[in-house]
Amino acid sequence: MSYAELCVTSNFTFLTGASHPEELVTRAAELGLSAVAITDRNSLAGVVRAWSALKELKREADEAIKIRSQQRTDPSSRQEVSGAEPLPTADVVSLPKLIVGCRLVLRDSSVEWVALPQNRAAYQRLTRLLTLGKRKAEKGECHLDQRDLLDHGTGMILIALPRDLRQARAHIGYIQRRFPGQVFLGAAPRYDGSDQEYFSACADLALRCSTPMVAVGDVLMHHGKRRQLADVLTCMRHHIAIDQIGTRALPNAERRLKGHVDMARLFRHHPAALKRTVEIAARCSFDLSELSYEYPDEIADGESPMARLERLAREGLARRYPQGATQKAKDQLEKELSLVAKLNFPAYFLTVHDIVHYARSQDILCQGRGSAANSIICYLLGITDVSPEVITMVVERFVSEYRGEPPDIDVDFEHERREEVIQWIYERYGRHRAGLCATVIHFRSRAAIREVGKVMGLSQDVTAGLSGQIWGYSNGGADPTRMRELGLDPEDRRLSQTIHLIGEIIGFPRHLSQHVGGFVITKGRLDELCPIENAAMDDRTLIEWDKDDIDALGILKVDVLSLGMLTCIRKSFDLLDLHEGQDLSIATVPQEDTPTYDMLCRADAVGVFQVESRAQMNFLPRMKPREFYDLVIEVAIVRPGPIQGGMVHPYINRRQGREEITFPSKELSEVLGKTLGVPLFQEQAMQIAVVGAGFTPEEADRLRRSLATFRKMGTIGTFRDRFIKGMLERNYTPEFASQCFSQIEGFGDYGFPESHAAAFAMLAYVSAWLKCHHPAVFACALLNSQPMGFYAPAQIVRDAREHQVEVRPICVNASTWDNTLERRADGALALRLGFRQIKGFREEDAGWIEAARGNGYQDPETVWLRAGVAPGVLERLAEADAFIGMGLTRRDALWQVKAIRSPEPLPLFNDPIDGESIYEPDVQLPTMHLGEEVVEDYVSTRLTLRAHPMELLRPAMPGLTPHDQLQHVPLGRASVCGLVITRQRPGTASGVIFLTLEDETGVSNVVVWPKVYEQFRRSVMGGRLLRVTGYLQREGIVVHLIAQNVEDLSYRLTDLGHPMDDAIGITQPQADDAPRPQRHPPRARHPREQAKRLFPSRDFH
């Protein structure tokens, strides 16, 4: 006899379930269950993961590989979700059936219902039911009533789970009368010593309601060891500490997944209830593989999708090749059209074409990227801008007859205008046919430490200390060594238990968010494919599944992505048109411009797309790009794939003539010729497999995909043997064959497609050309497109001034919300900073000030009276020194602003004439010294046009080398000091950290090796002003300081100035002298914390 578990809660019932869906399915297989139903609360978010895990188990069983609860990786969190528990294949020949379902919680009923659709029609009703409830509620909620269940419950098995048997009869009878034969009463053990008595009561209620009783486990976890974690999740859900959990704690670990033997013992007096589980499972025949996805295929003027695609492609061929298309292009087009027709994908291309066409009709810059640039159809339709003459198009990288999944086209739009495109998609296809994919937000280290620490009673100081030692979005948990550095004892029982729970919860889903732009668009109703819910953002809806889920089911996704650089480029073109009368587009920017390449060879690339990181800027002088394809390589080569594959040094040595360029065969010279015999791109890896090892294009694509997953799935071995054998058969040496495979293995971590690199290189060139020839325009557009890129506004402004751009301060009589350009007397353009640079300033207030400006304001009170802005707005302007054009210093302006009445004065002190300012006697305020001015600039705008902090601190800090002198001083030991503007810890750098320090002369690059990092970890991670001593390394114009000692001097920044309230003597008088408690805890005043707020760095990993 067997057992089917019909009620299982996974961790996609957020903060309730204590196991991943993959763990539950794998454990069900180990226990020999005949079926398992994933039934999360009002949700189907976890079912695809369970389905994919079961599919993988079946594949292993078919290949006679032992089933194992191996270290499986959740595709969204990239977390290992179970440990190794091998079982022989013979023990689990029959894998469990997965039943799709959910647990319906109704607002007007004390009975919860497990809903299990028996067929696809019932599944569609279930998804529409869930959509109904979710669209009525706020994000993350679902409001359903019994009436909704009556309207949609046809074809579903409905298992009642009453909270109170005494109140359940009426509710169960109400549903049972509507769905005779579909309703059952679920009996779940309570594990409190009264199970048999409770089962008897359930049997009695079932008899009176004419609803058969069925056994359910009401499972929360796959294994009993998760009990403590389940209690922690309960505490998080109720916002309490573990010491307050009381009766809400699980009494034991019995709500784990159980096999037939355990359940038969529990239901020994009710064997029919156990047998009924298998009968119900047999009635539920629906499988997720039945979901057939159909592309939207609106017929235009009676033209079929394929006919329209062919027509548009041939029109594009004539437009892209006005002098006549090459034979290569024609052959590529015919090959792709044939493949698209065979796979029935024309509607997909047309959908993307229509989206791009709409964006361009609204003057929204957009560009396709990724593997789609391998398609000439995408090029001819205007989706991408990379021609087959620039790159080698490998269409199998984009779409394959044997891959069994749809192609994937990513299109970038201006990040400030993408919402227009999103709303057009909703309007064009309807919200019942279009929705954004979800993104699963998981617990990562910082959040896990904070949340679990709070539940376990750790103080805020302890949790802050632990999380402060975590780099970026690391999932490594808390390190005992770091704990000891913080004065904590890892052996402490409560603390060690907390650390263990933190490790367990890392990777757990926390909630659903919206994908960055992945749209699912259907021909029929999308809510019959998957539930749809409201997003947190207004006017957006999203489906419950993420991109990995829809990929697993073969559902089309169009990525409508945002890219800040496209916004910057469009704004640059607009400014050029306005001020210089130049009408430019990406296509008409002058190509192969020598001064632009000269600038890049000098590593002058702050703000330039894709080549502005310190690693890229260090590589540019070695690469010395002189043509567009050099930029394609530059974009791709400073990536984990080429670095870990050992490809960077061979390529640069060959480029610089230090190593001979050789090819092992004529065939491979055609594949690797453009990259000097070194494979750098995914397409080259595929072509090597085809040309050198005899793979078919489809097999080469499978090799590429296995390279992306081999570390976690262990699937590379068979490909390695096949690859090396194929190369040996074609007379390549064993050493060369092994070297080739090792190189392309580097793509396992991150291989860059040539098509993607080419698409990004085009934007890199355009942004570099703008920076080279129109630095004021480029800086203005870059500032107006923030937040984006690698550098903060302070560094963008500093770089502009180094390029002889005059930067003018914020002024109430000259500035607008955006940064603007003003014509100087000599005809050059100056950059005027806008109100958007003031921290906390609103665009609406800027609009009022600009609209009422007229011929200018005379004083702060005039701004208040004419623009109608609140006194608090005037304070922000004064703090930003925006009244300097009126002849007012910062202190004078703030003094005048403080005299302006609040818009709602107390009646007792109301003047007879409303609107008059309070009379203040003239006073002579002391002048602020330069250090104070600099600090207040950073407080209000995060940048200064005055002195750099290091310029003021340097006289008191002897022995430092200015950054611009590092190129000229003798090699040896040196000390530098500066503000930390970026920290980087690339995954390929084996723990090495790269710091960028800024002083008044420029920036310097600091390399911190792991041993030095371990010694000075807190300073490296937390310092804002660092003094670094080490030894210099130089290669050409690239200089690095290899750190040996790192000192945090952030406290010195407080020597520059004082808080504004102290500076001008403002007090907060009270009506009487009675002491009052503080309403809010005092803000941190430690100098290091002040420095973090004033001079923030941008940290990358």
TrEMBL record:
<dbReference type="InterPro" id="IPR040982">
    <property type="entry name" value="DNA_pol3_finger"/>
</dbReference>
<dbReference type="GO" id="GO:0003887">
    <property type="term" value="F:DNA-directed DNA polymerase activity"/>
</dbReference>
<dbReference type="InterPro" id="IPR029460">
    <property type="entry name" value="DNAPol_HHH"/>
</dbReference>
<dbReference type="InterPro" id="IPR004805">
    <property type="entry name" value="DnaE2/DnaE/PolC"/>
</dbReference>
<feature type="compositionally biased region" description="Basic and acidic residues">
    <location>
        <begin position="1087"/>
        <end position="1101"/>
    </location>
</feature>
<keyword id="KW-0808">Transferase</keyword>
<keyword id="KW-0963">Cytoplasm</keyword>
<dbReference type="InterPro" id="IPR011708">
    <property type="entry name" value="DNA_pol3_alpha_NTPase_dom"/>
</dbReference>
<keyword id="KW-0235">DNA replication</keyword>
<dbReference type="GO" id="GO:0006281">
    <property type="term" value="P:DNA repair"/>
</dbReference>
<dbReference type="InterPro" id="IPR016195">
    <property type="entry name" value="Pol/histidinol_Pase-like"/>
</dbReference>
<dbReference type="InterPro" id="IPR004013">
    <property type="entry name" value="PHP_dom"/>
</dbReference>
<dbReference type="InterPro" id="IPR004365">
    <property type="entry name" value="NA-bd_OB_tRNA"/>
</dbReference>
<dbReference type="GO" id="GO:0006260">
    <property type="term" value="P:DNA replication"/>
</dbReference>
<keyword id="KW-0227">DNA damage</keyword>
<feature type="compositionally biased region" description="Basic residues">
    <location>
        <begin position="1077"/>
        <end position="1086"/>
    </location>
</feature>
<comment type="function">
    <text>DNA polymerase involved in damage-induced mutagenesis and translesion synthesis (TLS). It is not the major replicative DNA polymerase.</text>
</comment>
<feature type="region of interest" description="Disordered">
    <location>
        <begin position="1062"/>
        <end position="1101"/>
    </location>
</feature>
<dbReference type="GO" id="GO:0008408">
    <property type="term" value="F:3'-5' exonuclease activity"/>
</dbReference>
<keyword id="KW-0234">DNA repair</keyword>
<keyword id="KW-0548">Nucleotidyltransferase</keyword>
<comment type="similarity">
    <text>Belongs to the DNA polymerase type-C family. DnaE2 subfamily.</text>
</comment>
<dbReference type="Pfam" id="PF14579">
    <property type="entry name" value="HHH_6"/>
</dbReference>
<dbReference type="Pfam" id="PF01336">
    <property type="entry name" value="tRNA_anti-codon"/>
</dbReference>
<dbReference type="Pfam" id="PF02811">
    <property type="entry name" value="PHP"/>
</dbReference>
<dbReference type="Pfam" id="PF07733">
    <property type="entry name" value="DNA_pol3_alpha"/>
</dbReference>
<protein>
    <recommendedName>
        <fullName>Error-prone DNA polymerase</fullName>
        <ecNumber>2.7.7.7</ecNumber>
    </recommendedName>
</protein>
<feature type="domain" description="Polymerase/histidinol phosphatase N-terminal">
    <location>
        <begin position="4"/>
        <end position="94"/>
    </location>
</feature>
<dbReference type="GO" id="GO:0003676">
    <property type="term" value="F:nucleic acid binding"/>
</dbReference>
<dbReference type="InterPro" id="IPR003141">
    <property type="entry name" value="Pol/His_phosphatase_N"/>
</dbReference>
<dbReference type="GO" id="GO:0005737">
    <property type="term" value="C:cytoplasm"/>
</dbReference>
<dbReference type="InterPro" id="IPR023073">
    <property type="entry name" value="DnaE2"/>
</dbReference>
<keyword id="KW-0239">DNA-directed DNA polymerase</keyword>
<dbReference type="Pfam" id="PF17657">
    <property type="entry name" value="DNA_pol3_finger"/>
</dbReference>
